[in-house]
């Protein structure tokens, strides 16, 4: 350790500790002991010695945080050995750090001189920029510290490439706690194929984020937008990068590549006056790059953690048995190019995409087609799962670094020889004999059982024990008797298992009145318990039901086909308390996602037709579930609207074109969603809403407030927390957009979700809404009226 020359410490006293302001000009210099402070006093730049370092560095740290936290260092690799450093702007326009011998230890490295009047300014974002005095726009920065990160990614910094200048911005670890020189680990983007972020030890990949799938990185499902952070991934011809912003200005956060090779996201806790780790990555062994080798799949809750993709076997069974999966897997049957098919595996982190080819403009069907036609194609997947599946990634090489998630990830379609696919199918039909089904797990434990008038038990089908569940989603079961053979085979196709009536009678205590938990459109719903302890819900078709058997079957079949966490049918009596704004917003988002799934993401295009408060159920965690598929209609892929003679639905939620002309399209659901959003915000019902004489319903009232610029008054007055005014206003505007008179003006659910979720989304101005109940629609058969009281009261919550 070098002794610092003592005489130089005296120099301090001749200078004020902070030179005025946030900038250096060509006539001022920064000496050790002086600092620049950004305008609002957020960041400070000056000379520092990190940890126990004997050396001096020019760094940036948080001004207001008492624990000195250095976020950037200029001369990482060339420290000053004493207190004589000077930071100044040289004649050629470059920022330079000089030692006492006037040697240049560090420079901003510009080759063209920037301007005649350069200034170097520390911004409130923590960015230290060199620019012409006259111009402060970001485009005019000749140099900025954000382009040369150290180990920290601050909000607004870009992690990735400027493709025009080949500037690669990445973060790299310090060597140690008190040595900021570049260490072994770095986190950087590979812009090839579908760009991914990789964690490197020296030049070896040790962890991959997976490609950005439009919503998040396919390998980091925990990284999702939340109320604090907004993540984005920008990919244009000129630039490709990842960045994030803070939603709440008061939260201070930073992402750090730490010295032991972990990414850590810190959040400053004002209460504890300390940094706390919000998130870190890699998390488990499966995050280790290519842990299971080519065509191997990693599952961290399995032992051993590696398995082969369907149709593949371990390349080296012996190593595999010794729990070394790195050799990976090989095909059981070679491809023959002409007659191959695909097997779809779900919840996957996509394999390394840097060697894949990507076409954002293709649809998934075109993608499949293109993969089928190209003999070297091994697998394909959607490049963008935001708002449906679109875009195309094609792998013509080994698939490396695949893992699966319980929740998250996406579908990967792997090419297999026809004979392998045939093997799988015969495997499945033997399952059918057991009449076990469905890839499903109800997460808080209620299964829906439908029992129709005609549908009571069929001994021929056999009885079944409950299947072992493998995935989240709804389950539906049918008990049948006297069903036609067609119906039985149709339900077999759906893999519906059957229960005998005795089981159900036993489970519900002979449909005891105490077991009854609600009354749906078709009849009563009972709670029961099977012998094995599984909680079930049993829905019984009532003879008095206004709906027929067909609708009832329709519902059971739809629930069996549909798998989405916002569609599960769950009942809960517990939560009748007032709903906070956070709860309400989460409910709005949940319903929106459920609808989006129905409209776009599921394999069918489904119009629910009867979306209303009473058909939204809340589970214990207040997750909303859309229920009652009795009226839902499945549309063909290309069909966008139809006309129906039988107008059914609920008064107050029906769009004008549907109520009056029977025109049925997904925009009907969008309208109902709009009404529901306004109801959830206001805590009032659309129908039977009387604020004053002029407003016969809630939509009219909301529209009036909107026009008067007072829409915030719509908010339920029982809501006190006003943290989220912008969220409330955005939701009201989205509600009104959905309830517009003209179906073509109403947004698609994918846009609705985006508008709701995006803090600064530029929302269109809503046009006048359709006032569905104000137009003399006397003869509407508003048939399904019975409401599930539990949820109706929760949502009304007053
Ligand atoms: C790096 O981050 C990991 C994960 O948060 C943590 O366990 C480890 O202690 C950190 N290493 C250092 C040197 O801070
Ligand atoms: C991972 O393995 C566990 C234990 O075998 C299993 O329950 C789970 O379903 C597997 N995960 C996935 C996504 O297949
Ligand atoms: C097949 O796909 C690979 C990888 O995408 C591509 O390089 C090759 O040109 C394609 N071949 C044909 C015949 O299209
Ligand atoms: C992904 O899809 C969404 C919805 O269709 C679209 O808005 C977005 O621009 C797409 N992203 C890319 C990178 O193409």
Automatic annotation (TrEMBL):
SMART domains referenced in this protein's UniProt entry, alphabetically: B_lectin (SM00108), PAN_AP (SM00473), S_TKc (SM00220)
Coiled-coil annotated spans: none
Residue ranges annotated for the EGF-like domain, each copy included: 282-318
Domain Apple: 337-417
Pfam families: B_lectin, PAN_2, PK_Tyr_Ser-Thr, Pkinase, S_locus_glycop
Biological process annotations from GO: recognition of pollen; response to other organism
Domain Protein kinase: from-to ranges: 511-763
Record keywords, A-Z: ATP-binding, Disulfide bond, EGF-like domain, Glycoprotein, Kinase, Nucleotide-binding, Receptor, Serine/threonine-protein kinase, Signal, Transferase
Bulb-type lectin domain mapped to chain residues: 21-143
An MF annotation (GO) of this entry: protein serine/threonine kinase activity
Reactions this protein catalyses: L-threonyl-[protein] + ATP = O-phospho-L-threonyl-[protein] + ADP + H(+); L-seryl-[protein] + ATP = O-phospho-L-seryl-[protein] + ADP + H(+)
Highest taxon in the source lineage: Eukaryota
The enzyme's E.C. designation: 2.7.11.1
Signal peptide: 1-20
PROSITE patterns, per the entry: BULB_LECTIN, EGF_3, PAN, PROTEIN_KINASE_DOM, PROTEIN_KINASE_ST
Main EC class the enzyme belongs to: transferase
PANTHER family (UniProt xref): APPLE DOMAIN-CONTAINING PROTEIN (PTHR32444:SF183), BULB-TYPE LECTIN DOMAIN-CONTAINING PROTEIN (PTHR32444)
Protein family: Belongs to the protein kinase superfamily. Ser/Thr protein kinase family.
Protein name: Receptor-like serine/threonine-protein kinase
């Amino acid at each position: 350790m070098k002794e610092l020359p003592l005489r130089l410490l005296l120099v301090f006293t001749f200078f004020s500790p902070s030179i005025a302001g946030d900038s250096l000009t060509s006539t001022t210099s920064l000496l050790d002991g002086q600092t620049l402070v950004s305008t609002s006093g957020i960041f400070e730049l000056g000379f520092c010695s990190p940890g126990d370092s004997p050396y001096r560095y020019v760094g940036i740290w948080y001004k207001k945080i008492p624990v000195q936290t250095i976020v950037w260092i200029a001369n990482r690799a060339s420290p000053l050995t004493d207190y004589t450093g000077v930071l100044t702007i040289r004649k050629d326009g470059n920022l330079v750090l000089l030692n006492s011998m006037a040697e240049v230890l560090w420079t901003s490295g510009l080759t063209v001189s920037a301007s005649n009047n350069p200034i170097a300014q520390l911004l409130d974002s923590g960015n230290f920029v060199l620019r012409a005095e006259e111009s402060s726009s970001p485009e005019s920065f000749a140099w900025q510290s954000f382009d040369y990160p150290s180990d920290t990614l601050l909000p607004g910094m870009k992690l990735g490439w400027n493709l025009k200048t080949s500037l690669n911005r990445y973060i790299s670890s310090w060597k140690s706690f008190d040595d900021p020189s570049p260490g072994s680990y770095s986190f950087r983007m590979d812009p090839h194929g579908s760009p991914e972020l990789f964690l490197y030890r020296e030049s070896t990949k040790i962890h991959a984020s997976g490609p950005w799938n439009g919503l998040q990185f396919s390998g980091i499902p925990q990284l999702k937008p939340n109320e604090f952070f907004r993540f984005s991934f920008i990919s244009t011809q000129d630039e490709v990068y990842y960045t994030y912003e803070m939603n709440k200005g008061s939260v201070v956060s930073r992402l750090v590549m730490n010295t032991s090779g972990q990414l850590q996201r810190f959040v400053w806790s004002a209460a504890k006056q300390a940094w706390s780790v919000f998130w870190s990555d890699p998390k488990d062994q499966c995050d280790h790059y290519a842990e299971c080798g080519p065509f191997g799949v990693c599952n961290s809750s399995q032992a051993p953690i590696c398995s082969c993709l369907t149709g593949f076997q371990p390349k080296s069974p012996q190593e595999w048995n010794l729990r070394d999966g790195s050799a990976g897997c090989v095909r059981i049957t070679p491809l023959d190019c002409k007659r191959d098919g695909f097997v779809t595996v779900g919840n996957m982190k996509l394999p390394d995409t840097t060697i894949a080819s990507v076409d954002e403009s293709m649809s998934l069907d075109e993608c499949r087609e293109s993969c089928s036609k190209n003999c070297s194609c091994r697998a394909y997947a959607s490049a963008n799962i935001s708002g449906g599946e679109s875009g195309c990634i094609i792998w013509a090489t080994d698939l490396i670094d695949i893992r699966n998630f319980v929740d998250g990830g996406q579908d990967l379609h792997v090419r297999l020889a026809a004979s392998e696919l045939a093997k799988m199918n015969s495997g499945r039909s033997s399952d059918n004999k057991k009449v076990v089904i469905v890839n499903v797990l109800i997460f808080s434990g209620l299964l829906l059982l439908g029992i129709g008038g005609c549908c009571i038990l069929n001994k021929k089908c056999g009885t079944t024990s409950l299947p072992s569940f493998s995935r989240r989603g709804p389950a539906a079961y049918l008990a049948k008797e006297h069903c036609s053979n067609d119906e039985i085979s149709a339900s077999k196709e759906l893999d519906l298992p059957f229960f005998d009536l005795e089981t159900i009678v036993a489970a519900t205590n002979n449909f005891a009145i105490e077991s009854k938990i609600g009354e749906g459109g078709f009849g009563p719903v009972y709670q029961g318990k099977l012998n094995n302890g599984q909680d079930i819900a049993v829905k019984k078709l009532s003879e008095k039901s206004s709906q027929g058997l067909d609708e009832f079957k329709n519902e059971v079949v739809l629930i069996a086909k549909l798998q989405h966490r916002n569609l599960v049918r769950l009942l809960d009596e517990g939560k009748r308390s007032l709903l906070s704004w956070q709860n309400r917003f989460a409910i709005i988002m949940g319903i929106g996602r459920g609808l989006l799934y129905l409209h776009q993401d599921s394999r069918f295009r489904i119009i629910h037709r009867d979306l209303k408060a009473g058909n939204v159920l809340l589970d214990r965690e207040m997750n909303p579930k859309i229920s009652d598929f009795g009226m839902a209609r499945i549309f063909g892929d290309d069909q966008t609207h139809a006309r129906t003679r039988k107008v059914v639905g609920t008064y107050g939620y029906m769009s004008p074109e549907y109520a009056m002309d029977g025109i049925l399209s997904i925009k009907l659901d969008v309208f109902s969603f709009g009404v529901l959003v306004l109801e959830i915000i206001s805590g009032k019902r659309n129908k039977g809403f009387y604020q004053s004489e002029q407003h016969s319903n809630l939509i009219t009232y909301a529209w009036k407030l909107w026009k008067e610029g007072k829409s915030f008054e719509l908010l339920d007055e029982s809501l006190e927390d006003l943290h989220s005014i912008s969220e409330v206003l955005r939701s009201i505007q989205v509600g009104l957009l959905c309830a517009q008179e003209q179906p073509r003006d109403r947004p698609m659910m994918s846009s609705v979700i985006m508008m709701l979720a995006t803090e600064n989304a530029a929302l269109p101005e809503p046009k006048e809404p359709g006032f569905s109940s104000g137009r003399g629609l006397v003869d509407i058969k508003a048939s399904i009226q019975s409401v599930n009281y539990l949820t109706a009261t929760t949502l009304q919550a007053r």
